[in-house]
Amino acid sequence: PVSQALAGQHWLITAGPTREAIDPVRFLSNNSSGKMGYAIAKAAQRMGAKVTLVSGPVSIDVPAGVSRVAVVTAEQMEQAVMQQVSDADVFVACAAVADYKPAAIAEQKIKKNAKTMEIKLIKNPDILQQVGALKNKPLCIGFAAETENVEYYAKDKLQRKNLDMICANNVAKKDIGFDSEENELVLYCKNGDSVALDQNAKYTIASDLVSEIKNRFF
Ligand code: C5P
């Protein structure tokens, strides 16, 4: 650590996409690279926190001093988070969890015989909403990746998921968000405050976010 600003705190962070199997060789997923979540984990660790990173499949090295729990599906991510959450002071949900998963996983590879095919999807658990509903919940920070009505949807999630802060990014903007090196965020707090973190490298945005959380809530 380069500072002890977060010494004694345990930060639980989710990152990356989840994968939901269709058959033994196929899955549903999304474009999340995990870069933002990993940058937050690194920033919190460098400020002295104990950091647990629950990560979907990504190709990034674990930051030094961070303990990673590797998962694949939303259900596995939910289990890993629920196992750790009672010990966490801060929960940052940065993962792009698949909202739906196939209702059934085909046992064998699906053959391309039919001209059309349908996959029935069912809803995955909402991990952040579950944590936000806990009686002894940690400080809860969510993300809202939106392509339109960013502020409206972000504030809706802040309320609905019972969060302390939500970090909104407009993933329709070029050069920021999914799989890019830079990001820009607007933070909306439970008390009505908002803070803009202008476009910058993901690690810079992550450090500013972690400092903002520390200064506001601790
Ligand atoms: O997918 P949605 O826009 O609702 O995501 C908002 C926030 O909720 C994000 O912080 C995301 O990590 C979290 N989330 C979750 N479990 C889900 C869906 C979203 O923890 N199944």
Structure description:
Its EC number is 4.1.1.36, 6.3.2.5. Pathway: Cofactor biosynthesis; coenzyme A biosynthesis; CoA from (R)-pantothenate: step 3/5; Cofactor biosynthesis; coenzyme A biosynthesis; CoA from (R)-pantothenate: step 2/5. The structure is a single chain. It is built from five helices and twelve strands. The protein is of the alpha/beta class and 218 residues long. The protein has a single domain, classed as Rossmann fold (3-Layer(aba) Sandwich). An eight-stranded mixed sheet has the order 5-4-1-6-9-10-11-12, with helices on both faces. It is globular and about 60 Å long. The model has no long low-confidence stretch (mean pLDDT 96). Cytidine-5'-monophosphate binds next to helix 3 and strand 9.
In short:
With 218 residues, this protein is α/β, with parallel strands linked by helices. It has helices at 35-46, 74-84, 127-132, 150-160, 202-217, and strands at 10-15, 20-23, 26-28, 50-55, 67-70, 90-93, 100-102, 121-123, 139-146, 165-170, 182-189, 194-201. Pathway: Cofactor biosynthesis; coenzyme A biosynthesis; CoA from (R)-pantothenate: step 3/5; Cofactor biosynthesis; coenzyme A biosynthesis; CoA from (R)-pantothenate: step 2/5.
